[in-house]
Amino acid sequence: MPDETAEKGSEAEAQNFTDVYSVCVECGEEFTLTSGEQNFFKQKGLRMPRRCSPCRQARRQEREHGGKGEGPKGEEDPAR
Ligand SMILES: [Zn+2]
Fold this sequence. Notes:
This protein is of the alpha+beta class. It has a domain at 20-64. Helix content is 28%, strand content 10%. It has 2 helices and 2 strands; from the N terminus they run ββαα. Strands 1-2 form a two-stranded antiparallel sheet. A hairpin with a 6-residue loop joins strand 1 (20-23) and strand 2 (30-33). The radius of gyration is 17 Å and the shape is flat. Bound molecules: zinc ion. The site of zinc ion has 8 residues, from helix 2.
């Protein structure tokens, strides 16, 4: 891999991750995991995502909304 130090600026301060190309397990699209993202996940102690960001966002939103109807707790409960 070429070792480009300039350009990126903000994110890549510590380590030289290179962009990783991966295939989303959700939609099968190829997506890029940038060095900044890899750094982020590493710092958080998270595993590298296997989904593209649209799919990740969709999943996150589904969770926040209680999994639109299909989950065990699909209904809104106003009492909280
Ligand atoms: Zn996807």
